[in-house]
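User: I'm curious whether this sequence folds into something compact or stays loose and floppy. Could you predict its structure so I can see for myself?
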Amino acid sequence: MSSTEAEPAPAAESPEAAGAPRRLPKALKRSELIAREIVRDVAERGLKPGTPLPHETEMMRDYGVGRASIREALRILEAQGLIMLKPGRNGGPVLSRIGPEQLGHMMTLFLRMSGYTYGDLAEFMRNVSPRLAELAAANKDRAAVRAALDDKTGRNPCALVNQPPTQDRPDFGPHSTINMLSGAPVLSMFADAVDAVFTGHTYAVTQGEDFMDIAARDHHEIAEAVLEGDAAGARRAMSAHLENIFRYCEAKIPGIYDQPIQWK
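Assistant: Here's the prediction. I'll summarize afterward.
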């Protein structure tokens, strides 16, 4: 190349070559955008399960779209289990109760399509539930710990029993109670959902008196460790409890941990 020839300008470096993440634009349908707006409004207003949403005509006005878009947006939310569409003259969209069972139900579809097994659920529980028990024992709000683990009768302050559902905490089973005390709400939510899936799919074989005796003893040990602030003991007790559950289910349903999760 002669000195009079201009050198070609270097090609601009692509975002991929520079290591920058490539964002693929996702074109959302109008109904999907409206569904997101409805969810945002519900969350910002703090609406509770059972609350009716506005009439279609009012939503058309508020969101500036036609009836077809509103109806499709509501069907999206209904399919996700977030609302119920009550029929009749006085019907319409009503907020559903959202809890571990509802999240678990939605998760099982994806777990089934991915080919995951009940053994995969068990492995999640082995890794997460003992950690949550450990965190519950380390909870600095000891009054809250005592209140949650007291069976309200005064007979046994270490009893870990099913408690009445509340609006803010609809599923108050023994494991859910421990998870709540961990102070890790997102981890707790998913642990509750996985526990709901596993328990719901093995419920029929875990209602015998022999299993209930084991569960009552294990729950007592877990609760006692949490009440005493013994984090390591709570972790060990929860781990041992889970292994008791898994062995019992394997004995009642041979090969369960190799079976694909069913969408229920």
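Summary: The beta strands are 83-86, 92-95. The two ends are 72 Å apart (CA to CA).
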